Each structure stands twice: as C-alpha cells, then as structure tokens.
Amino acid sequence: MQEKSVSQKTGILMFYTLLIAYITFAASWVGGSNLGAQIVRTYFGDKGVDPTISEMVNYTITVARVIANFLAAAVLVKCGIKRAAQIAIGLLCFALVAVWMPNYWLYIIARMIMALGGSMIMVYMNPIVVRFVAQENKIFYSSLITASYNIGAFVIAIAFVLWSDTLQADWRITLSAVSLVAIITFIIWLIKAKDFETSGSNQQTPAQAYSYGMAMKDSFVWRFAIGFSAFLILYVMSLNSIPGQLAKEFPDFFVPGYMICAISGGGIMGTLVRLKRPVNRERKPYLVQLGIAATLAMAAGIASVALLKLAFLGYLFFFICGFLIFYQYAVYLNIPHELPNMNPQKATLMFGIIWGITYGLYTILNYIWSFIYGHIGYWPSNLFYLLVPVIYLIMIMTLPETYKKK
User: Fold this and answer.
1) Which of 7, 35, 118, 363 could, after both became Cys, cross-link 25 (CB 3.0–4.6 A)?
2) In this structure, are residues 147 and 267 in contact, taking their beta carbons and an 8 Å threshold?
3) Dist. CA 293–CA 291, nearest whole Å
4) What is the number of domains present in the chain?
5) pLDDT tens-digit profile, the chain (406 residues)
6) Domain span including residue 247
C-alpha cells in the first residue's frame, strides 16, 4: 500500500537526494573520461588503441541510458517511486565496483550498470517535480535538473585543474572517492524517502489517461527526442570527447581541463541567470536563436584553438557556448511540463521514452563522429560535430508553441 500523504518538505528532500545522486553520476562519467588515457593504459599497456575502442565506455554508457530510460517507467509502476529510485541509486553504486574490475570489458559492464542507475534517477526527478512543485516554480527545478550534469562536470573539472597530478596518480582511488557520494545518497534515500501516488488519478479523467503505448506513438515525444539528441551532441561531447580530441591534436598549448571548466562554468552561470530571468515570450523562436548562437560560439572556440592557435580565446568562446547552452536547456526541457494535462505518471512515461530515444540517437551520432575522426580525419569530424545541431534547430520548429500569455 502506497503512502499517498507525503509532505512537501519530504518530497523536496527526495528531489535533492536524487539531484545529488545524479550529480555524482555526472562527476563519475566525466572523471572517467578525463582519466581515459590512464584507464586504457592500465588494461592495454602502452600500445595504441583505436578511437572507437577508447570511446567504448561512452558508447556503452549511452546504450545503458537508452535501456534504463525505457525501463524506468515500468519499474516505477511496478515498484512505486521509493523502491524504484532505491533500485536506481543502488545500480549507480556500481560505479565503485567498476573501478576494481580486473579487465577492461568487465569495467565497461559495471559502468553500464552504473549508467542504468544514473539514467533512471534522471527520469524519477520529473514525477517529484510534477507532484510537489507549484507550476510557477517548475522552470526553477527544471533548471536544476538540467544543471545537475553540468555541476558534476564542473566540480570534477575544477578538481583536475587544481590537483591534476594527485588525481591522475591512481585513477581507481579517484573514481572510488567519487562513488562514495552515491553510497551516501543511497543511505539517505533508505531513511527518508516515501511513496506517493504517481498515476495522477485524481487529476485526470479516464479519457485523458496516458499509457506507455500512447507515449511511444506520440509524435511530440519523437520530435522532441530527435532534437534533444542533436542538442546533446553539442553539449555532452564538449565535456567528454572534444576536449580530449583537441588535446591530442594540439598538445603543446591546449589543456582539456580548462575547456571542461569553461563549458561547465559557463553552463552554471547560464543556469543562474536563467533562474533570475523568466521566459515571458514564445519558446520556439527564442530557442532557435540561442541554438544558433551556441553552435557559432563552439565553432569559434574550435577555430581559435585549431586555426589561430589562441587557446585563451578558445576557452572564452567555450565559456560563452556553455552559457548559451544552459541558458536555453531548461527552457527546452520544460516544454513537456507546459503541455496540457501533465501529471506524474505522464511525465515519467514521456521523459523515460524521450531520454531513451535521445540517448539511442546520441550513441549513433557519437559513434559516427568517432569513426569519421579515426578513419577520415580531424576536420571532417569537426564539420560533422558542428552540423548535427542543425537537426535540433529544425526539430524545435516542429514542436507546439507552449507559451501562453498571461
């Protein structure tokens, strides 16, 4: 029997517990990317590894996220929010198991399990927002959700800038320390979390019920997810693939940690400014303008490093790009919340499938990028990387306009 009477204070505590758990997931993922060379060297020695192999962790993590997001809604319906999120955080704790695996492939499998948990956590934050947060505050919490990955990336990037030699001395100890935070959130969840009704039965009539099958057939879900996957190529690869690529191509003057700090720091600044500035205008033209500006800023940053050999100018453009990405991210991710007849169950189903499709497409696009880089060359891979966000711009124009003048 579910406890349907849960205080708002408890609900908000549950939200922030999941938020911290997801930040930990992001820190572990980005930290693993930063330590990629050390990890590969541990398992393969000093022999060279094809880019498609070195990117294997990123592929498998995104595949795991596809699976997790499709499963998240079913687990929630069967187990309730408390048990479902408990399972998710428990899987996230496999981040600690992964680092002590004896070979690369077992390491990848354990990281996939970690990613299953992390992705489920992202989905479970949304029904809590729908249930416990007033409509006028939803964009604030959507901003926190979108910033969570960036916060984790920023914290780990700053740590690598300040204590690079120490953190790289033993990658297993470094990633184990990050994983301990996940274990703490697991304990907090066990003690404080409560179940609540997610079906929305008190908020909608049977004619308005939203099922898994309806979500899969919903054209909005697919259009939103396709655009989202292209957006994530611009954003996520700027933190875990592009810095490493630029460092490999221009090792004499480019520092990948500085780029990660610039992107994530700009993202945090963009999130903070967004929290203070409500968007009282039509969403679609606003998002298109910001999307174009963010892509141009990234292109200018890459050109500053690769063509002008001015790393400092590149970091400046990367900061601007991070700011623009996150200045729009919360607005884009909040669009489903602005649809009519939204409730916790619908939010869970919709976001679960959206994230699943998104990461499936992201994985394909990421693989194509690494294949182009490994077999065709540096500049063709960059051209592909900068053209993909055009898909995001096109998909925005196909979405319904959700802004309503007051």
Assistant:
1) 118
2) yes
3) 5
4) 1
5) 344 578 888 889 999 999 999 999 989 988 887 787 788 888 877 765 666 666 666 667 767 777 877 787 778 778 888 999 999 999 999 999 999 999 888 988 898 899 889 888 988 888 888 888 877 777 778 778 877 887 888 888 888 888 888 888 899 999 999 999 999 999 999 999 888 776 554 444 443 567 778 888 899 999 999 999 999 999 989 987 899 899 999 999 999 889 988 998 898 899 888 877 778 889 999 999 999 999 999 999 999 999 999 999 999 999 999 999 989 988 898 898 888 877 777 877 888 788 888 888 988 998 899 899 989 999 999 999 999 999 999 999 999 998 877 6
6) 8-194+214-398
Rg of the chain over Cα atoms, rounded to whole angstroms, equals 20
The domain that contains 274 carries what CATH number? 1.20.1250.20
Residue 2 lies in a domain: no
Does any domain span residue 81?
A: yes
Residue 377 inside a domain? The answer is yes
